[in-house]
Amino acid sequence: MIELIDVSKVYQIAGGTDVVALDDVSLTIKKGAIHGIVGQSGAGKSTLIRCLTALERPTSGSIIVNGQDMTALRGTALRQARRNIGMVFQQPNLLDNRTAGANVAYPLHIAKADKNKISRRVDELLDLVGLAGRGNSYPSQLSGGQQQRVGIARGMATNPPVLLCDEPTSALDAGSTAQILDLLRELRDTAGVTVIIITHEMGVVTEVCDSVTLLQRGQVVQNGTLDEVLADTDSPLSESLIPPPSVDDADVRPGTVLVDVAFTSQPGVPTGATVLNLIASLGADVTAGRFESVGSLQVGRLAVSVPQYHVESVVAELQRNDVSARRRSA
């Protein structure tokens, strides 16, 4: 459905200096997937969005969306191809002087759709996003979560096969966030739309995404299904998605150090009970822990208190039993 092939984007700034925003990015997103793209500020996420929608052209490489190379299109063909990508933004950016229904209808008017078709489509979409009967409400009469639902309906107006969401929940409270993520999942399941979520909220990724990509300095440093990423318990992305438990200094006994232990419940890997028994047999104590179910995996992360003289042998024994373990940095 979506494929980036060796995509680079280089900006030239005053003085002739080159700034590399995307560096040889290759990425495949399967049809019907919900794919998260994460990374710190400056990682290249915004540039990637602009290139995906052909608002910017990459310096090199190809971007295939729905079978079309966006980098090769011009004029009418490009405008038509852009309608295959719906957009949802951090702020809904609704037109304040238009009703919810008129906001949803706006892309259809631009596409010069038949008036009767527009009316039916607006009613259908408002019903789909849970706002049936609110078509005559103005944005000021809607909550933040409801406004974002209108934004999603507007993004789906032309029935695009791809929905690109840029920080769609970062301005919402926890309840509204859960509702929006449920809605995106429903759109994928019922309409078959491929959803790309650009986010800095790792909880969004673990809650709704099937796969995820980590960008750093314009490069893909990790990519895979959620199960694949979380199974690599030592990777930076896995630790970001499910961080080690925090421990107060006051809870660390004198003469001991903390060891971070991580494991997943999957074939060939010790279960939580096995790991806890092993830790106890080594004379170590669990100071804090967290267990989370994500997709088909259960992920455990523990902070283990180990006598300082004994730490190297404990870490080695845990690793020998296929359990991720390393001394926590000060």
From TrEMBL:
It comes from the Bacteria. InterPro entries: AAA+_ATPase, ABC_transporter-like_ATP-bd, ABC_transporter-like_CS, MetN_ABC_transporter-like, P-loop_NTPase. The keyword Ribonucleoprotein does not apply. Keywords: Amino-acid transport, ATP-binding, Cell membrane, Membrane, Nucleotide-binding, Translocase, Transport. The keyword Magnesium does not apply. SMART domains: AAA. Belongs to the ABC transporter superfamily. Part of the ABC transporter FtsEX involved in cellular division. Has ATPase activity. Homodimer. Forms a membrane-associated complex with FtsX. This is ATP-binding cassette domain-containing protein. It comes from Scrofimicrobium canadense. The lineage of its organism: Bacteria, Bacillati, Actinomycetota, Actinomycetes, Actinomycetales.
